[in-house]
């Protein structure tokens, strides 16, 4: 088992003939990929989706380019696309949820008004591990939910999320702010 090696070092080992090396990446990322899949779909489908995601990553590992993104970002891009395909097949996701271009990048005036209550991030922090958060996340559009899960659960930066979603940094930040505000309104 490789513990101290970076993802890129493990990939190099795999590409140089160490067939067991990729298993280390699977072990390293299975909990995150499973949780991401479960949050965007459900726990019943998360195992199958995680397996499909890793199979796609393994088949396409030769296409991975460290100069474009980290392995984690690349893997979560595969995960996002696989989950969207799954949801389209299940027809549990309507087209407007997928069409992120329908949402303008400008922040509306009402979103800039200061609030005396808890800050949005403080509200989310208080709800982080609660059952209520899970129920509230289910009510959010998929693009908002995805950003919150990747940022707070996946501990990804907005830059990484932007690469995964193929969106500019400011768009990701705007979606994040809107998602937090929507959650806050649901809580209050």
Question: Care to describe what's here?
Answer:
With 188 residues, the protein is mainly α. The chain contains ten helices and no strands. The longest helix is centred in the first third of the chain and has 20 residues, at 21-40. Mean pLDDT is 80; it is low at 93-118.
CATH class of the largest domain: Mainly Alpha
Quote the distance from N terminus to C terminus: 48 Å
**Beta-strand content:** under 5%
- Biggest β-sheet: count, sense, barrel? none
What's the number of structural domains?
A: 2
The outline comes out as: globular
Q: Tell me the radius of gyration.
A: 18 Å
Looking at the structure, the CATH topology of the largest domain is Arc Repressor Mutant, subunit A
The helix/strand series, from N terminus to C terminus, equals HHHHHHHHHH
Helix content: 55-70%
Number of helices: 10
Shape-level CATH architecture of the largest domain: Orthogonal Bundle
